[in-house]
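Field: sequence (string)
Field: structure_tokens (string)

Example rows 1 and 2, in order.
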Amino acid sequence: MPSQAYDGIILLGLIYLMWLATDKGIVATSIAAVEVFVSLSLAVVLYEPIAGFVFSYLDQNLAFFLPESIADSLGQLSIFLVFSLLMWGTLAALWVLVHPHLIPSEEEAVEAGMPILDKIGAAAVGLYAGNLLLGAALITWSMCPFLWKIPTHAMFLDVGRTALKSTGRFLGEWHGGRSIP
């Protein structure tokens, strides 16, 4: 599939998430954006040390049970599993445990109304949250050792790189002195 098709899919996803954000309002969308950002930041910071531990455990205890083709890719598989669990597990936990307590109730949202500025702000925040969410999905996809690779070098909308740059600028040097692209 050409990279323009991937760009089209990403663009449709961003437009859908912006439209969804206008229905939810700026407060709910901002909270969701922070939840995605926190999940991605935690995953970027913690996946390498935890994946190293998981890889050494799997290599010492399970590698001799597995076929050689799978045993050779245990490092990539452990990185994929750890990043996926950190990113999507943290997001699911935040969405279930924190999100319902911070979002205004339906009655409060109806009482306040939805002025046009709230919808415009929600769409802008939805674009940012969608960029992070789709970027995290592309990052997770690219870490999977047994799926085909998406040619991000030719993509116009490389949201994965944008998401990594966004979290890298926020994290600064909190990740052991290693620069995040």
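Row 2 begins here:
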Amino acid sequence: MKKLITSNEICESATRLRRALAADPSRAAFHNSLGGWLRALNRTDEAEAAYRKSIELWEGYPEAHFNLGVLLEAQNRSDDALACYLEALSWQPGYARALTRVGFILQQRESFDQARQYFETAIAADPQFFDAHYYLSWALSSLKRHDEALAALASATALQPASFEAALATANVLRNAGRFDEA
């Protein structure tokens, strides 16, 4: 069973990272980790600064670009987030999480076929990545490719059998396909 992390534990971890960075401020991975802890504390300006420092120290650090993108996307800065995800992909082309976030943003912009391509690339890079299968079903359904959307949801469900989201999406795709008796 996973233990829930308390805000005190997050603060303690952030404090330890700050001490380590005081001793050696050149550790890009520490700045990236600090950004994650600060984001968990909803200290978004400080988290953004930590991610940017990580990138300044190691331009080719895909995880830092990705994490900055996640932070920016949560702030409804999707253009900036998209740029971060694409930068992460320039350093690690098979980064399934970044591919999926690019696809998600494209899908929100109703570029469904482009989104589909990113989700399919993410699945090719990591066939076990639930989110890529799940969001692929959205893109395919939006393209009226309902049978393919159902196949993507079947793959997602095989990865996470208890997923309420996948079950609900399956019912929605069936309904959109006019297959009400199966929904």
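free_text_note (row 2): DSSP finds ten helices and no strands in the chain.
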